[in-house]
């Protein structure tokens, strides 16, 4: 796979860039005191966090509340308390489509491919605000409809080639292997042109060569103005690739900082890394 | 009754119920909404169209209207009157869509099983309202002053008996020729089993339609069945009668509905509908306002059911609330599932299968005191077929259809992966 | 003589609720544990009612020889047992097979719809569509006139005997007794509640929640006092008067349904089988890993649910004095409404939902003139109203 397979950079990258880096280091996401309870069990206990542009890793032991936090950020759960802002826009308690339209898109930990639709259709679904998504436009089929569908198909093919899914485009997504489903999940999220992507364990089950490729791709995308918040269990992977690391423990943020700093933090070692193992 | 007349009435039935089924397929097959209240929109389409098109102050009618739309435009001649009727049908479709909007807003947020039961409940309530409120649509007495579009024009005769016979006969034979051509093409594309089934079924039907009547009725019957569009008894010189016209209208409406749904499904819009059926969280996570789409699919499907209701009214010539029992919805579900959920061709096949069994078994001679038993046995059979199909062939006879958004070709290398 | 009013409508509503509850108990069991939104439940009710008819009044069924009539109660018991056998057939022949194929909820809905078509038309095929009655003793309704006067409450009971209206009793309660009785009822109820409540700790599993126990104690106190503390009439010059009609059917239906609810609850909460059932309802795969024989649990669920459905059918047929092939399907909507309202995972919830639906149907029809054909509609409006506020039902999908 050569460099030319890399999809073109984000169409409105410059514009987004200026927005993302307008204040140079202005946080993308500001999370204040987010709390979520499930029938008396506190899953999130006042999470305070700011996410800056770039790659941020989110780690923590099982049950720390990482996925619940993702669900609250993307509107799949309504937080009981607290506030979430995306670029200074309050998105607390908004519906998932609204939040996605605002530029924050997530992947699911257990891939949720649309099993009876083809891989290609799974990808074509993703781009936002397609002209043909309106009923009348789908009946009339003007020039815009055709042109946009052509463009979307090209982009989908490109990204499928990058994720090594191009030979599977016409297969039903349900027939993919576990690793391929993960890739489809990421590809779909990227096709929406988000400002920030929340990746929930995107690399579990992906072969190491491809894993490296995806990581370098993510770094390229960061150059182009995308940001990522990444849940991952592979600590080395987080430490090697993230600019900042957030550690969660028992529903709250334990610490944040650059990888080296976090790695040597006593509390983190205590809570997560299992004492003398690291 | 000649076999041709039976076939015409059966085909009209199948066309109308296929249109009804295609509306259901849009909701259930493509979008995944279990609307057990689908028949309510059939009823609304029928009633609103009839009331909009029938004359005011009809005898024996004490409900709202009528509004006599065809009469208003009849100054423009028969076509004006037809235009008035079409406006009435549009009114019926819009009414069905609006009611489904009102039903959908509270119920579409519910779990799928709760949606099924509330939709069934609301449909039952709507039928009760129509039945009990005489001021609305005449209550249980129904409406028998249904406006039949272009009724006065028929039978249409184009000249002498021979000319009529030649013109309509040629049309009839053209239809047979096209059917034959289509069957051959389908046959060629089938696998071994499909070839076997078609190879047995088609000759059997041909024998039943052509040979058996000839044996009993001679050449006269054969001629009548072959030149099926030509009715020798219609008018002094023969011609095409009203029943045959209704069939053509129904087939045209089915064609229109089919085209529209296909267009809807094979588009980015249709992709979203199907993604909702598969897992609604995914399109939501990708920024699609799925609620709007569900609502629109419900309204469009209901409007198609409303159009079917309008045709039903002119075909039967009389409408009453008891024609719109919840079982009609269940028949449509059976037809959709047997033919192939999420396959519009399958809906037509399933509907033909269903109504073929239902109306075909009328030819079985049973003493009249056993007519209830016969009807019950038919429905037991249908219930059984439903369960067996779901177990052994859950995708139905045809399976889910393929999707394609045809685009003008370009000179790009990778054209193979166009879906 | 006074006319029937709100109080009578309430009594009717409770009975309607009890009949719906009979169906709702079985439906909630299937819904919760087998995870089938069973649209065939209404027709299982019909089948049960006709099962009893086979033994009670075989002369009415065309293809059967008239081999004599079993007493109603015996026929009902046989009918319920046979319906249980049919329940096993549904599970073994249909639903187990679909469960093994991991059929989704929509498929289960349609499968149960297919079964509903088969069952209803089997009845039509075998029996025809005519109205049939059980052979039972005539039940005489006693009308109680309640008159609120200056000095208290006067009750007159009348019966229609051989066409004549006969007064069978006249008594009353002075105000002091009424006040004292109500206070006693509140006290007894609260005492029971407090007594059970004190013992509660985190691990207590209540067979009957203290609140329900307390309420039952209060009602029992009022009834006992009403029956035994009958004093002289307090005059007939009434300020408010109302009449309720009661007969042995009302009492029996209420008693049978409450007993069924109680027994079901005991089974679910105290027996090993019940624990297995609840574990299966929570998570079938996990229950299987822990050694629960899920197939056996599901079989029992279908048998029990079919028996409960038959019970509801027999009670309905007896109460309405006729059986039709559509009787069960007509009950299906209110039963579903009750189950969704009450939450699908508790017998008490199902009965509570059924009572809300039953009361809203009969009281609603009484309060809104000319609405008698909208009984089911009223129940549905309530359900949709609740779902608008809480889309997952009052108790949600626990």
From TrEMBL, chain A:
Keyword Membrane tagged: no
Origin species: Halorubrum coriense DSM 10284
Official protein name in the record: Probable branched-chain amino acid transport ATP-binding protein LivG
SMART domains on file: AAA
Gene Ontology annotations for the cellular component aspect, listed alphabetically: plasma membrane
UniProt superkingdom: Archaea
Pfam families listed in its UniProt record: ABC_tran, BCA_ABC_TP_C
Region span, Disordered: 1-26
From TrEMBL, chain B:
GO cellular component terms, semicolon-separated: plasma membrane
Coiled coil: none
InterPro entries associated with the record: ABC_transp_permease (IPR001851), LivM-like (IPR043428)
Main location: membrane
Keywords, alphabetical: Cell membrane, Membrane, Transmembrane, Transmembrane helix
Record's keyword annotation contains Metal-binding: no
Superkingdom field: Archaea
Membrane topology category: Multi-pass membrane protein
TM region(s), chain numbering: 6-26, 38-62, 82-102, 114-131, 161-184, 196-215, 245-261, 297-318, 330-355, 375-392
Subcellular location(s) per record: Cell membrane
GO molecular function term, any single one: branched-chain amino acid transmembrane transporter activity
Protein name per its UniProtKB record: ABC transporter
Taxonomic lineage of the native organism: Archaea, Methanobacteriati, Methanobacteriota, Stenosarchaea group, Halobacteria
UniProtKB/TrEMBL annotation, chain C:
One Gene Ontology CC term in the entry: plasma membrane
Keywords attached to this entry: Amino-acid transport, Cell inner membrane, Cell membrane, Membrane, Transmembrane, Transmembrane helix, Transport
Membrane topology, from the record: Multi-pass membrane protein
Membrane-spanning ranges: 12-31, 38-55, 67-93, 105-127, 175-196, 208-231, 251-268, 299-320, 374-389
Taxonomy, superkingdom: Archaea
InterPro entries associated with the record: ABC_transp_permease, BCAA_transport_permease
Transport among keywords: yes
Location(s) in or outside the cell: Cell membrane
GO BP term (any one): amino acid transport
Pfam family, one: BPD_transp_2
Major localization listed first in the record, in broad terms: membrane
GO MF: transmembrane transporter activity
CDD domains: TM_PBP1_LivH_like
Family membership: Belongs to the binding-protein-dependent transport system permease family. LivHM subfamily.
Protein name (database record): ABC transporter
Organism: Halorubrum coriense DSM 10284
